[in-house]
Design goal:
disordered N terminus; 5-stranded antiparallel β-sheet; Beta-Lactamase; Alpha-Beta Plaits
């Protein structure tokens, strides 16, 4: 390697070092003034992330999982407390239901004894009163009254006769009517006969020896006494609601605010309707007083009554929540104390590092003669010694750097001149490309360029109009991806020919967002200096309007403009093709020749517009009366023909003819009026090779003339 080459390499390395050091100096200068001002003012130099802060964060990182664990465990305990509270409410519901079942059993037993000891007779009223008074002390404690009643509802005995005896009757009470029919009934709450207080009535029939109902015995239970049975003070938290509800959702007893609730429905309160359907379980619900409660509910065994116990959620879970807060609070306090101690220790450790930061700042300002006085055998001392050696090395290299600065400045100036020349050339190229794009964008055709990888490298703006996509989704993408597999398949063969060096002009139908379009395109190969095809120029013009005109002309040649049916030209082609197919298949072709009976009269009296309406409707009914494969055509005026293929017998022709005649029975629209229209049909059968279209049409015409001679609205088959 020569001396000149070594010098150039050394200069390049020097250039890179100068640039790197320049960036470093710029970064140091941002902090230099601030550190110096703080040191002159006798303040500490702050570190962006001190050791104390890092130690505090470490303590937090180690302690937070523990706090999270404590919190999760406390929440788990709260969930256990919630489960226990639900079990407790359900147990209370079972206990209350057991008490209610005991009361019901006692009352039913008493009622059974009474109905076997009384006599249902007006003359036995005094004896019945005496019997009831005699057993008063043996009655269950919740009994309000006992009565004996005749089949028509009159009282013939009562435990408390002085209260409601005169004229007392319960014939209108539903429980009496059901008991009088032979059923034991429990009903309530209902107002008592004596004082109107709410009671629950137990009614049972008194059955004679012959099995007939001789009367009814009733026993009423004082709901105020039942209310006292619900008082579980000391066993439940304050605010707990215990309610007894009958099968219809009516409150029988309630531990809180009973005067307002007894006799009212609770079906629309909270989840009462759902709980009654479930019969037994636990849930969390919102009461009528909008207090969240843990509810336990069950159904009594002897009746269809439901017992609800609703315990306030706050009262049930208050102890568990207090434990959660205490546990998390103590853990957080411990974590904060540990962080504070760590921060204090970090401050003491960081003191010599702050001094080193100040020394490094002075060196960064260019005071390379400065040396740090921090010493020691620990990591800080090693860092200080390394900083002093680094300062010595930087001082030596700085002198060498100054010597090469002039050479770097000369090369920088040359580089700037080269960049300016390159920018000017690039601007010229961009202007030329912009002029080319402006020209192609103004052309109402797609102009593009495709490289050997079948990718678009240039597209004018008309591509956006045609494909309904921005150029960013077209240029530099493969042709197949842009056009789609179906459209690409239409042009792929032509594109292959162009890449083989052949100019290709073509017409193709291309699907697009707005439907199929017709394109007239050209592919022109692009050759390099060696004669190889390196790309293809493409231009495509939308010729859809031209194609539409061509198709319209074709339709006019083959279609009748009034009815939309095939015209005489289409019929001539169709009947000839049908006869050829019949010759191959060995079947016959039937030709039906039809016209509209009295059509001239319709035209003369109602006008040509009404006649056109009749012809269009006539054509529609003809088409709906035959198979989709059969040919229906209009020859001229009111003359129509039908070609039926695959005919084996004349009966098939008769069936179709009758079907057509029946289809014309309904009135036809003719302008603003309706008219009655009939048709006459002439039928001729033939087979390819044995007849010609002209001969078959002539025979069908003769048959039509014969049908009209028979009075019209009929058909005739040619012999």
């Amino acid at each position: 390697m020569g001396k000149a080459e070594r010098t150039d390499m050394a200069d390049d390395n020097s250039t890179r070092r100068v640039i790197v050091n320049a960036f470093r100096k710029a970064a140091r200068a941002a902090f230099r003034g601030r550190f110096a001002r703080r040191l002159r003012a006798g303040r500490r130099v702050p570190l962006r992330s001190s050791i104390g802060v890092r130690l505090a964060l470490l303590v937090l990182a180690l302690g937070l999982p523990f706090i999270v664990y404590v919190g999760v465990n406390a929440e788990r305990q709260a969930a256990v407390a919630n489960t226990l509270a639900k079990q407790r409410t359900l147990a209370l519901a079972h206990a209350v239901a057991g008490r209610i079942d005991d009361v019901v059993a006692d009352n039913l037993t008493t009622l059974g004894l009474v109905r076997h000891g009384v006599t249902v007779d007006a003359a036995a009223t005094a004896a019945n009163d005496a019997l009831l008074a005699k057993i008063r002390d043996d009655l269950p404690p919740l009994v309000h009254n006992v009565g004996v009643w005749t089949p028509d509802g009159r009282n013939v005995g009562m435990l408390n006769p002085g209260i409601a005896r005169p004229g007392a009757s319960i014939a209108d009470r539903s429980y009496f009517r059901r008991a009088a029919q032979g059923s034991s009934v429990i009903d309530g709450p209902v107002p008592a006969l004596d004082d109107g207080k709410p009671v629950v009535v137990f009614a049972a029939p008194v059955v004679g020896e012959a099995g007939n109902v001789e009367g009814v015995v009733t026993l009423s239970t004082d709901l105020q006494q039942v209310q006292r049975r619900l008082d579980l003070e000391g066993a439940i938290p304050p605010g707990t609601v215990i309610a007894i509800v009958n099968a219809d959702g009516i409150v029988i007893a309630r531990s809180v605010d009973s005067a307002r609730w007894i006799g009212r429905s609770i079906l629309d309160v909270g989840k009462a309707r759902e709980h009654m359907a479930r019969r037994e379980g636990v849930d969390e619900t919102l009461g009528a007083d909008h207090v969240a409660r843990i509810a336990g509910f069950t159904q009594t065994k002897r009746t269809r009554w439901h017992v609800f116990v609703g315990m306030p959620t706050d009262a049930a879970l208050s102890a568990a929540r207090v434990n959660v807060l205490d546990t998390v609070g103590l853990g957080a306090l411990s974590l904060l104390l540990g962080a504070a101690v760590s921060a204090w220790l970090g401050t003491r450790i960081a003191r010599p590092l702050r001094r080193l930061a100040y020394d490094a700042t002075l060196l960064a300002r260019g005071n390379l003669a400065h040396r740090t006085r921090v010493a020691g055998d620990d990591e800080t001392g090693v860092l200080a010694s390394t900083l002093n050696r680094l300062a010595q090395t930087v001082d030596e290299r700085t002198r060498a750097l100054r010597e090469k600065t002039a050479a770097l400045e000369d090369k920088t100036a040359a580089l700037e001149r080269g960049v300016a020349d390159l920018r000017a050339a690039q601007e010229k190229a961009e202007q030329s490309e912009q002029r080319l794009r402006s020209i192609t964008d103004s052309i109402p055709s797609m102009v593009g360029y495709i490289d050997r990888e079948r990718r678009y490298r240039f597209n004018n703006r008309y591509y956006e109009t045609w494909l309904q996509r921005p150029l960013a989704e077209i240029t530099d993408r493969r042709v197949e991806d842009v056009l789609g597999p179906a459209a690409y398949a239409n042009v792929a063969a032509n594109l292959d020919r162009a890449f083989r060096g052949e100019r290709v002009d073509f017409d193709v139908e291309a699907p697009g967002p707005a439907g199929s379009r017709f394109v007239r395109g050209s592919y022109v190969p692009h050759f390099d200096e060696a004669g190889q095809v390196i790309g293809v120029y493409t231009s495509s013009t939308d010729i859809t309007p031209l194609k539409e005109v061509e198709r319209q002309l074709e339709r006019l040649v083959q279609k009748d403009t009034l009815t939309g049916l095939p015209n005489r030209h289409a019929f001539n082609d169709g009947i000839a093709a049908a006869l050829r197919r019949s010759q191959r298949s060995g079947t016959q072709v039937a030709l039906l020749f039809l016209d509209v009976d009295g059509f001239k009269k319709i035209n003369d009296t109602l006008g040509h517009a009404a006649g056109d309406d009749v012809l269009r409707e006539f054509a529609r009914r003809l088409s709906s009366s035959v198979r989709a494969t059969d040919l229906v055509a209009r020859l001229a005026g009111d003359e129509f023909v039908i070609v039926l293929e695959g005919i084996h017998t004349r009966d098939e022709c008769r069936f179709v003819a009758r079907k057509i005649i029946a289809a014309m029975r309904a009135p036809f629209p003719a302008g603003d009026l309706t008219v009655k229209v009939t048709t006459s049909i002439g039928i001729a059968l033939g087979q390819g090779g044995a007849t010609t279209p002209e001969a078959l049409l002539k025979r069908a015409d003769s048959a039509l003339y014969a049908a009209k001679g028979q009075g019209r609205d009929t058909f005739e088959i040619a012999i």
